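I have been asked to look over a protein record a colleague put together. The record follows directly below this note.
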Amino acid sequence: MSTHLHISSHSARERGIVLVLTLLVITIAALIGTTVLVASQAELGTTQRVTERTRSRALAWSGVQAAMAELSQQREELLDGFEPNLTPEAVVFELGDGFQGVFRLVEIGPEGELAVSENAKLDLNVTSEDVLAKIEAIGPSFASEIVKHRDSSPFVSTHDLLNVKGVSYDTFAGDAVGGSSFDAMMDVPVASFGSSDFGDLGGSLPLAQLVTVFSFDPNIQAGIGRRSSDTRGDLRLNLNQEWTEELGREAEKRFGPDGANAVKAIMESDRELKTMADVARLLIDLGNMGEGLSPDDWRGALDAVTTTSDWFLPGRVDINHAPKEVLAALPGLDADKAEQIASMRERLDEDTLQSPYWLIEHDIITVEEIPQLIDHITTRSMQWRIRVEAGIKRATEPGEEATDEFGMLLNDLDDLSQRVVYEAVIDVGSQQPRVAYLRDVTQLDLATSWANLVGYGTDGLEFDRESGFDQDLHDGMGDAGNGADSGTELETDNSRSADVNNDRSSSDTNGSDRSAANSSERRSDSGNNRSNMEADEPAEGSSSTGSRGADSGDNRIGRWTTHAPKVKDSGGSQ
């Protein structure tokens, strides 16, 4: 009996141990399964977020490409001084259940413009110290620091100003940040980029609205004057060179036989014609002789001639688009004349605005004042800055609240889920358009809002380029990227890649500006770039029009191009 009980007790203990071990194994297996499931779900969530981010970036890049295509199609009108007309929003694809992949242009100008002219600003790399000092937000001391900086390291983006001693982000951008749901949530009183409230900088726009590094006026004729149909799109006639028979033929095409003989006599004389100011003084002297020069003579001459072999003229300010702060800083102008220009240009027709001579015709400046101004101005804009936001949007009926894919309500400031925002400068100075600058600014409003929230002012928030606000642009660009260059340079369907003088500094991979060329390097390579241009395609006009010379070539910065500013092929060769 006792033996039987002992055996039963032993068996029970064994069964208990087996049961405990079984439960332990099941528990461990469940924990492992749960861990694997959680890890798989986390990985799936990460993969989904990366996919969504990549999709939104592709949408934003499509918006940049669409704007570039439209600007390229409108290039002839832009050369005549017109403003671009861009599509504000487009649906790229449908996801079902009423959700759409969209991109749209964000209001970026002080009056709600969808594109702002870079030619309406002062170029940091070429504008004189005296002119910069006249900008209220800069002043003499800061202007001196800017010149010192560019002498040692030319600016490749306006954000480089934040590395110059004495400037803060508040001075640079004012209170302007992109509106977002964060601002609404935190109830931070900040203005959107489309607002006309750019902060109080002594009544002036912030520096971001007044300066640029992407101002390059193509050195070609608009076709003003009696022979305009024959010379529109030709490179201008360079008077700062030796007279040749080929030059004579080009002069005759523009001015007729008598005019060509007069040009020859002037060029073979001892008179120096090194700048357009010299040309203006020559025209004044000619006007004081005999019957003088008519307004048409002035307009035709200013359009037809140049004194440089460069294909592009950097830093020329578009007087038909520049804000009053920029106009007042130009040589020979002041606040009163800037006010007159801003008022008068709204009432003039496009033909009159094509030539800077309208400043004389309408008594804003005298003919004797034009020499000090002429080398600083133009009447057209060929580089335009845009801001594109993209994401997923639910098509709603009037009065219906917008929600994201998960049913969460979206406020009016941010009706896009998976939102990505790109800022770009598109350059159509040559017939081959390019994205000269590209930056992801999706989180810029968040960073600036935090700065405003904690009370940073002009003396408190210094911008560190090494920890910039933007994101790496390479991920998600697919074939649009250029290898492992972290989005510094982008290849597009309608523009060639040219690995010349790219700025591949480590700061670019940490979120700095996506400007691609160091202007200090480009100067030494101008001859090689010219050879590439000659091999690729002929420039407009013949070689005697002024594109031949040791310093000729594409002198722009940003994403490089190897093409002259061609409008038409007039039968000549570069």
